[in-house]
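FORM 7B: Structural annotation worksheet

SECTION A. Query
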Amino acid sequence: QVQLVESGGGLVQPGGSLRLSCAASGFTLDRYVIGWFRQAPGKEREGVSCIASNDGSTYYADSVKGRFTISRDNAKNTVYLQMNSLKPEDTAVYYCAAEPFYGLRCNLLTYDSWGQGTQVTVSS
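SECTION B. Predicted structure
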């Protein structure tokens, strides 16, 4: 049974940093593409960053390029999202998701396993 558990969210001031973790169980992480998605109040869920199953290549949404970094530790079966220079518009519930796919893609419609989400609030 595929299970994903996010952690690391919280309240942070603009310009601050947070590191989100996505702990996976029930499957081998290196055979899955993993994505971070977010949903702000009143908005649709959107892709933030994804990491390939095979070669570690990555995708970032334009809004987070240069500020967020996705990484994976297959030995710990965990994927991370380091978020720096946070802005109020980054406020959202952040979800990690997994799909058994060889390569990289970041279309939320193709991901079939989701975590419960973790709240990130950027405010002074």
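SECTION C. Observations
The CA atoms of residues 4 and 24 lie 5 Å apart. The chain has a mean pLDDT of 95.

SECTION D. Sign-off
Analyst initials: ____
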